[in-house]
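Issue 218. Parser rejects a valid record. Input:
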Amino acid sequence: MENGKKIALVSGITGQDGSYLTELLLEKGYDVHGILRRSSSFNTFRIDHIYNNNELLNRRFFLHYGDLTDSSNLNRLVEKIQPTEIYNLGAQSHVQVSFEVPEYTAEVDGVGTLRFLDAIKETGLKTKFYQASTSELFGKVQEVPQTEKTPFYPRSPYAAAKLYAYWIVVNYREAYNVFASNGILFNHESERRGKTFVTRKITVAASKIITGQQDKLYLGNLDSKRDWGYAPEYVEGMWRILQADEPDDFILATNETHSIREFVEETFKILGEEIVWKGSGLNETGSLKSSGREVVAIDPRHFRPTEVELLIGNPAKAAEKLGWKPKTSFRELIRIMVESDFEKAKKRID
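Output the parser choked on:
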């Protein structure tokens, strides 16, 4: 650290959380260095407004090609940048996809975390490390609500890889005195969420259905329940975790749970429609009350091989030790997402 300068290194910078975290850190005066995975197509749309804003940048935002599967690359970046804080948000982050590419998921989400920690150990850099952990660790839940002491029971290759990452963070913290913390974040959404994730899939599809651009929304388990919060608040929680006096592990959540069915109903309600459900199981459908038009159906391809039925987190520790509390309600979160996607749908913007 030069002259007290705060320098952050962020993997997964092009994702939902990476983009919000970058904005937050720049506002707080950090130099921000992002790791960008080389691709034949551009995937920087979430951070383009930052990269193209010269006034905001003032030479404080930098992008570097890199990959969590490349140890030598991570070592070079850590040694060159000398970050005061590292946020490891990079991951193959889609649970369903992890069943299709389990080995790759393990390499990036599990061993990738080890590579980062080992780079810190090998370079001897005094930095703080944040690991993006996940509520999926709890999987087949052993306690309701889940706390930092609830036993883990992962139910997907994604969750199993993240379980390794969680424990290797704890191990390096205890074995090598690395300031390394896990943020066990429950589902957090926004208008920047990827369209393959169920919440954004719902708000995009509903907006297109109402504007006549899509016929139907296909979903899997409507009764899965999740603890949903607003992503910009959760990245502030990440930052607060690294400002603590000692490294530790924290749950960030709302302590409130809602089903995918409720998410669908609330989405259409904001758009001025009511959903009427008919049938059961794979034959269940949802129709618009105003017209009787069927707009929601079940597609068994969207079911996971092992389902996670209920996740709800207790953020009391984060409230007590970090002063962090969620502010945006379930309905307000959906309203933010729907208003953004409906405007895009009206303008025919994908």
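Fixed in the parser; the record now loads. The first strand starts at residue 7 and ends at 11.
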